[in-house]
């Protein structure tokens, strides 16, 4: 049995699969302590990709502007810190609320669209936010970014250190919470209704389901989670740059989701790890041509693993079971 199939089975048969995520992360902490800063960025990015999976994989809302929420959360956390409030957990929650509000404001306009118009409008919203942040140097710092960001110890006891231990476990705790909440949402009657809207929008509307309301709610949840990831990026890096609002950030999240498996929750986590590890290794080997490796990975996944790496692992596990059954 492959490692991927083993992980998939563990996720299926464990009542709280988030515990396996924490266990694997703890193992990484023991085996690769020198890469904690990189691992922390992987955990934060995984939350962002998970938020995209909620709105794309389960609601069917295709977007190229999801960095709008990530960036709003990052800048909100940085500005809250600069203006005097430095307790990290409450700052992260406040940033998530900002993301939900942004989704509430933009959602009624965005969610009325479908396919290419939807894609273009989300891309335009992201571009507008990027240019606004670039011009508002008095607020965002422009190209120089926000600096001078400081946060109090987590829970008043765990200091932010250069070794990144606190940042790593802090991000891991938030990832487990987000995975648990996302799993409960997807498996709830509301989550099933959202999947129904994705599968057949018109039929759900004819059945009397409040389709726009369902889409707006999941859009707000996704926006809040993406903003939370942005806040965690600010808290762990102590810096906010314009890249948090760039279209490249949105595209990278989309690629990670496709690599891991769209609409599979844990595909977001697996895709993030695979993409960022391959990116890290390829960039170290050749810092100028690493995109060839990423492009090759994406092409291979799209052609030979229709459900992403997680889908491929499930297919291989099924093939092994059928082979054993035939014997």
Spans of at least 5 consecutive residues whose pLDDT stays below 50 are none
Number of strands: 0
- How many helices in DSSP terms? 15
Multimer state? single chain
Mean pLDDT: 86
The H-and-E topology, N to C, reads as HHHHHHHHHHHHHHH
- How far apart, in Å, are the first and last alpha carbons? 16 Å
What is the C-alpha radius of gyration, as a whole number of Å? 20 Å
Structural class: mainly alpha
% residues in beta strands: under 5%
Largest β sheet strand count, sense and barrel closure: none
Helix fraction by DSSP (H/I, runs of at least 4): over 70%
Overall geometry comes to globular
- Provide the number of structural domains: 1
How would you briefly describe this protein structure?
The chain has helices at 3-13, 18-31, 36-58, 67-82, 88-110, 115-135, 137-140, 165-186, 189-199, 201-206, 211-237, 247-260, 266-285, 290-304, 308-326.
């Amino acid at each position: 049995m492959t490692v991927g199939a083993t992980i998939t089975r563990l996720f299926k048969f464990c009542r709280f699969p988030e515990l396996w995520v924490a266990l694997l992360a703890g193992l990484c902490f023991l085996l690769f302590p020198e890469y904690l800063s990189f691992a922390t960025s992987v955990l934060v990015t995984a939350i962002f990709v998970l938020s995209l999976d909620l709105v794309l994989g389960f609601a069917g809302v295709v977007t190229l502007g999801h960095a709008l929420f990530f960036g709003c959360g990052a800048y909100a956390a940085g500005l809250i810190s600069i203006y005097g409030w430095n307790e990290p957990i409450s700052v992260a929650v406040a940033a998530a609320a900002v993301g939900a509000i942004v989704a509430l404001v933009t959602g009624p306009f965005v969610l009325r669209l479908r396919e290419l118009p939807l894609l273009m409008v989300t891309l335009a919203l992201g571009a507008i936010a990027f240019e606004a942040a670039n011009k508002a140097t008095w607020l965002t710092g422009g190209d120089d970014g926000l600096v001078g960001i400081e946060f109090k110890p987590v829970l008043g006891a765990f200091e932010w250190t250069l070794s990144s231990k606190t940042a790593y476990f802090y991000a891991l705790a938030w990832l487990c919470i987000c995975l648990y909440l996302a799993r409960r949402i997807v498996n709830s009657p509301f989550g099933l209704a959202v999947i129904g809207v994705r599968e057949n929008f018109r039929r759900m509307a004819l059945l009397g389901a409040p389709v726009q309301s369902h889409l707006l709610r999941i859009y707000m949840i996704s926006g809040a989670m993406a903003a939370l990831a942005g806040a965690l990026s600010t808290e762990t890096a102590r810096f906010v740059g314009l890249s948090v609002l760039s279209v490249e950030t949105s595209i990278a999240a989309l690629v990670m989701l496709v690599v891991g498996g769209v609409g599979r929750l844990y595909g977001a986590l697996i895709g993030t790890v695979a993409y960022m590890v391959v990116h890290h290794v390829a960039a170290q080997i050749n810092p100028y041509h690493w995109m060839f490796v990423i492009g090759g990975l994406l092409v291979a996944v799209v052609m030979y693993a229709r459900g992403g790496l997680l889908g491929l692992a499930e297919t291989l596990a099924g093939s092994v079971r059928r082979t054993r059954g035939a014997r």
